[in-house]
Records
---
Amino acid sequence: MDATLSYLDQLIGAGLLIPTGVDGLYGRSGTFEDVICRFEALVTAEGGRDNPEVIRFPPAMTRRQLETSGYMKSFPQLAGTVHSFCGGDHDHMELLAALDSGEDWTKGQEPTDIALTPAACYPIYPMVAAQGPLPPEGRLFDVQSYCFRHEPSADPARMQLFRMREYVRLGTAEQVQAFRAGWIKRAEGIIGALRLPYDVVPANDPFFGRAGKMMKVNQRDQGLKLEMVIPVANPQPTACLSFNYHQDHFAGTWGVQLADGGPGHTACVGFGLERIALALFKHHGFDPRDWPTDVRGLLWG
Ligand code: ATP
Ligand code: ZN
């Protein structure tokens, strides 16, 4: 590897990522996808033992859900909404003329009912709330989705469209806290066995603006978000997994309810799949055939 090239350039040079001209939007090679697929199988082997309900949503949610979730209050800078042309012939002529002359053709685009999913667990809370109170044992979901966050960056670990695999637990405070603590141990087992160096550290979400500062401090002080960080491309290690305890936030937002009518608590563990693949390529090399035998055995054995 040429040390003078950035890690992104090296990944592109090796054909693992395919550039599009937009920072954070890449194609993935077959090798890249295979690593993600094998890693997910490892996660499923561990998490499947708890018999989760497996649900897959497309990488979108309703605009109404995004509004109700409070996302625009906390993270307006990251949200993505889908807009479409909804005009008639005359508007179409204007659109084509604008395209022709290189003017802004997007002015006539109108918001649709669809927004891009910012985190794989987001569509689960309104779904569960709509299905009624939780059973006494609570509920557990396995979700995976492409997620969108408007944070263009030349850091290959900071993409605009990336996948999150998550387990999401809903139940009493005790149930969801035990879930989160258990998954920190399990994740340490998985990442350690893949021979990646890691640390688990307190973290916060990128809450927007002045009001967000207080929320960041509170989240950290209360230990509501922990991240597993792994050195990838930067001097600072990169958050590759998150362990989030939302307390009863989604009871307030969506009405997630316990069997006795009390507020449901929730927690999620999120695997940043591209970041984990990038960490594996960084530490073991760009060709998985050259990876340590035990790591290969775990993933492809
Ligand atoms: P919450 O449900 O509270 O919003 P979450 O776990 O669903 O949190 P994050 O903690 O923000 O969401 O992200 C989960 C994981 O997704 C991160 O640990 C990281 O590995 C990955 N991730 C986040 N942003 C990016 C990005 N821009 N590019 C690639 N991976 C990312
Ligand atoms: Zn989540």
---
Amino acid sequence: MTTAVFAGSFDPATNGHLDVVERAAAVFDRVIVAVGSTTGKQSLFSAQERVEMLREACADHKNVEVEAFEGLLVDFAERKGAAVIVKGLRCMSDFDREYQMAFHNRGLNPQIETVFLMASPPHIYLRSSVIKEIARLGGSVAQFVPAAVEKRLRERARGPA
Ligand code: PNS
């Protein structure tokens, strides 16, 4: 049984992330979506909120779990018995950063392989930061994100009642 960890900030998750989850779930026996809770970035949603949105969006995939993690990704993967880290690659600008992370993760734990899945064409330019900007400025993001995320972004844009 091969377990893979798909890690990211997911602030918030987009349809591109969901596409990678679904494709990874078809290749690996078990996929753990790992939500980085200490990424050093200022996040719009708490780690708990990001986990909740992803759990709702992934509910139909029986071999997919969602968890927040702290500390090194390779340590989380090892604790979970994962032999693979899955990352999505969109455009060339992703490649350099992801390659560096894969290099360091391999140095830290050579037993864990990083596997890249190319983004599907409709999702190549989807970016959480742009989604947040559109939502903040009152635009509709329904076509770019799962329903659970769209709902939370709308609530967030409306502000406290
Ligand atoms: O969606 P992102 O911002 O590309 O996700 C980044 C994430 C959470 C995958 C990355 O920050 C991460 O792996 N954090 C854990 C810390 C770690 O293991 N660092 C050392 C190797 S890069």
